[in-house]
Design goal:
CATH class: Mainly Beta
Strand order of the largest sheet: 5-4-3-2-6-1-7
Order of helices and strands: EEEEEEE
Distance between the termini: 9 Å
Strand content: over 45%
Largest sheet: 7 strands, antiparallel
Structural class: mainly beta
Length: 81
């Protein structure tokens, strides 16, 4: 699956995404909520529960969904684990 980095997290509520940090996949799940400024999101991870991720922690959101409003940043290496 070809994933792309989403730079505008405010568009992600309800999307299925992968959270990466320094190129490593940390979690996959559905975005439950995002702060107004898009600096923080809550991810509902199957079998784990709800987890919080911050852009300030060098977390990146990657998605395959082509939804209206997604702002893609072209990045190399977009395979899902």
């Amino acid at each position: 699956m070809d994933l792309r980095r989403i730079t505008d997290w405010t568009t992600l509520t309800g999307a299925i995404i992968e959270i990466r940090q320094q190129g490593r996949t940390l979690a996959c799940g559905t975005v439950d909520a995002v702060t107004f400024d898009g600096a923080v999101l809550w991810l509902q991870v199957p079998g784990v529960g709800r987890k919080l991720y911050e852009k300030a922690g060098f977390h990146e959101a990657w998605a395959a969904e082509a939804r209206v409003g997604f702002h893609y940043r072209v990045s190399a290496g977009g395979s899902a684990a």
